[in-house]
Amino acid sequence: TLAERVVAEGRATDADALFADAWERESKTDTGMGGGLAIPHCRSAAVTEATLVMARPEPAVDFGAPDGPADLVFFIAAPDGADQEHLVLLSRLARSLIKPEFVEALRTATDEDQVVSLVEGALVDEPASSTGAPAAAAPAASASAP
C-alpha cells in the first residue's frame, strides 16, 4: 500500500494506523479528481514528516471520480497538527495536475527517478517557503491504496 511506502521511506511509524486514518478521511469525501487522477490525503499521528507518494496502479483504482478510476494516485500524508504543510502540498500538487503536459509526463515516465524529479519540480516551482516534503514514487505500484 502507499501507507507502507511512507513507512518504508522513514516518514511514518505505523502503516496500519496511517492506512486507517487515510481510509477514514477517504470515507468522508472521495478524492478522485477525474481524468484518471486521485489525491487521497490525511493527517495522522503515525506520520513523522509530511510526505507525498505517487503510484501508477494497474489496474486503476476507484476513488469516486465520476469519470472512472485513477491511474495516477498521489497520497499526501502529514503529521497531526501539520495543517499548513498539508495544505501547501495539496495546493501545489493540484495546480500542477491541471497542466496536461505534466500529467502526460508522469504517465510516460520510465523510471522512479524521472517521476520523483517531475513531482519535486512541481512542488518547488513557487519560490516561497519549501514544504520540506520530498516526493517518493512507486511507478508500478499495486492496486491497493492508500
UniProtKB/TrEMBL annotation:
Name this protein carries in UniProt: PTS lactose transporter subunit IIC
The protein's superkingdom reads: Bacteria
The top of its lineage is: Bacteria, Bacillati, Actinomycetota, Actinomycetes, Micrococcales
Query: Which SUPFAM superfamilies does the entry mention?
Result: Phoshotransferase/anion transport protein
Give the CDD domains listed for this entry: PTS_IIA_fru (cd00211)
Residue span(s) of domain PTS EIIA type-2: 1-122
InterPro entries recorded: PTrfase/Anion_transptr, PTS_EIIA_type-2_dom, PTS_SugarTrans_NitroReg
Q: A single GO molecular function, which one?
A: protein kinase activator activity
